[in-house]
Amino acid sequence: GQDVEGPGDPNNVAGRSTNGKDFWNFRIRRLKLSWTGNIFEKEYKYEVVLLGHEGGNDIIEVARFQWAKWAEFNVNVGQAKVPYNYQQLVSSGRQQFVDRSTVDAVFNQSFGKGLWFSGVIGGDTPWIKYWAGVFNGRLRAENDFRNNDRAIVSDAFSTGPGAVDAELMPALRLETHPLGNVADDMTDFRDREASKKILFSVGVAMNWFISRFSNTALRPTGASPGSGRSRTGQDTISLTVDGHFRFYGLSVNIEWHHRHTEFHNFGPLEGNGITRNRNRPGDLTDNGFLIEIGFFILPKQLDVGVRFAMVDSDEFWLNGSENKPNGIRPDSTEVGLVVGYYLAGHSLKIQADFTYVTYQLVVNAGTVPSLPTGSSAPSRSASSIANDNSDYLNVWQLRIQLQWIF
């Protein structure tokens, strides 16, 4: 269930009412069919995941082939998650909460098609785990400068979201596990005896995404050339650092995110001074922080957890304004509680979580992405700017999930 409050004129109760957005419903969040195995020899591996809850061009989630003759060096080709932030890389079936955080929703790099190398150096004590490769890098939306390359698309040249263009996206992730391998799991899913051993890991990742885009709220584009390739582009560097601790059923997961986007003009628009006199933004910088702490009261059976997540999105001026009320995303803060009961490990479990997300609204610069909680993003009211008041949208969520994997 979800309850939504706000926004509007702080002195106008009717303006703050959004009861029409409240709901209770049942939902099949995910339905996946997966195949993994070997071809000819054990070193030739494959993985295919199809989505029953999607359709059309989005039905394939993973289609990956791997040559894994040595643990230290593997070659991968196909479609899989871009090796970026930890919470996204951990399977949806091994999350502490019913679903991933608002920070993940704002910063993850989704799935990508490409060629990448991976490996583990150190055996049972992985001093280095690495992933390094190049991916297509397809623009998620004209107002969302991240990769999203899960859909099946044609090879015809195009521009905008889902475009096939001349740019490739390099990605790199490194991890170290100096006391032993920390499993790809948001919980400390070990029996009590095994969990007496302290484990921790640290990861760092980056990717560099370049593409053209067309968003007149951020950059007037002018007439496109015959190719249809936009004369405005973006250049985004994304960085994340994460740490993970496991001991005696206690799990601590921390992520920090930093993203910097610069906008560029090309062709006749190059050097037109569009950023002068506070007309249009030259760049955007966003930051995020996530911490989740959980504990197994009964080992591998009953756990509880808490979450705190925060997104600091950049605001900017437009059209010569002297303040910076404009943005393409609001700032947000999320707090949450969860309890989980495991009947057969992650394969059969029941989870119930309660999350509260508050968004500090901005004046929407054109069309903006939907909020991580699924609501459309309202624009900050004019009266809140005039009276120097903040404007908020608050979302309460109670979610109960039955997960069955077989």
Write a concise keyword list for the protein shown above.
406 residues; single chain
- Share of residues in helices: under 10%
Q: Tell me the radius of gyration.
A: 23 Å
Q: What's the domain count? A: 2
pLDDT below 50 for ≥5 consecutive residues: which ranges? 9-17
Which strand order spans the largest sheet, edge to edge or round the barrel? Answer: 1-20-18-17-15-14-13-12-11-10-7-6-5-4-3-2
Write down the overall mean pLDDT. 91
Describe this structure in words.
By secondary structure, the chain is mainly beta. It folds into 2 domains: 2-30 and 71-404, Porin (Beta Barrel); 32-70, no CATH class. The protein is built from 4 helices and 20 strands. The chain has helices at residues 13-16, 86-89, 102-107, 382-386; strands at 2-5, 32-39, 41-51, 60-70, 73-81, 111-121, 128-135, 139-141, 144-147, 169-176, 199-212, 232-247, 250-265, 283-298, 302-312, 326-327, 331-342, 348-360, 363-364, 392-404. The strands form 3 sheets. Strands 1-20-18-17-15-14-13-12-11-10-7-6-5-4-3-2 form a 16-stranded antiparallel beta sheet. A two-stranded antiparallel sheet has the order 8-9. A two-stranded parallel ribbon has the order 16-19. Residues 9-17 have low confidence and may be disordered.
